[in-house]
């Protein structure tokens, strides 16, 4: 994943881990994640927060050509209202980071 996109997610990392349902989000990422990755995230011994951390770690490792950031944002928007609000906050941060980079 592109470093600015990763930074935008990291800026909201604590809230993402605390607030999102990674299993709902993962359901919208089936064409991005492998079956092994999805099975790993679903492990019953993981807490919901650990599942979210694992999902984000996997997304960070994905090639930019697969558009993991954009697909993660879309998945958040499709799951529920609180996830949609989180998606907007992450996108706003990404735009601010882009603007800051362009000014340098």
TrEMBL record:
Domain Caspase recruitment: 1-83
Example GO BP: innate immune response
Keyword Mitochondrion tagged: no
Protein name (database record): CARD domain-containing protein
Gene3D superfamilies recorded: Death Domain, Fas
GO annotations of cellular component type: cytoplasm
Record keywords: Immunity, Innate immunity, Isopeptide bond, Phosphoprotein, Ubl conjugation
InterPro entries recorded: CARD_dom (IPR031964), DEATH-like_dom_sf (IPR011029)
Keyword Ubl conjugation: yes
Pfam name, any one: CARD_2
